[in-house]
Design brief:
Layout lengths: L1 H7 L1 H6 L6 E2 L4 H11 L5 E2 L14 E2 L4 E2 L2 E5 L5 E6 L9 H12 L1
Length: 107
């Protein structure tokens, strides 16, 4: 699970001057369960009622039932320096790739 991998390397990520912000398509109850189960220490945004996170950050598949997972590294300059869009709801960005980009930005 990508969230677990990001949590395991969270100290390394923050030492590189970065922050993790997760966006969940689930509601507060479901998102809270994941946060507690995985022990996430970074912010996780969630859906509320009919409000959903902007789909500009990921497309939909299966008739709109499963979002494509997306991972982005956005620099302090506001530019996207890394973008990964999974081909299905299981495929996630390798955390090592994210760390590599953060190291390049920190140099």
């Amino acid at each position: 699970m990508q969230l677990g991998d990001l949590q395991k390397r969270y100290n390394e990520i923050t030492e590189l001057g970065a922050e993790v912000i997760a966006v969940s398509m689930d509601d507060l109850s479901e998102t809270g369960q994941i946060v507690r189960r995985v022990g996430l220490m970074f912010p996780v945004l969630y859906s509320s009622g009919d409000a959903r996170p902007p789909l500009a950050y990921s497309g939909l598949m299966d008739g709109g039932t499963h979002p494509f997972p997306g991972t982005y590294v956005i620099g302090k300059d506001g530019q996207i320096h890394y973008e990964f869009i999974g081909r299905n709801y299981i495929e996630r960005a390798p955390t090592g790739d994210v760390i590599d980009v953060l190291r390049q930005l920190a140099d």
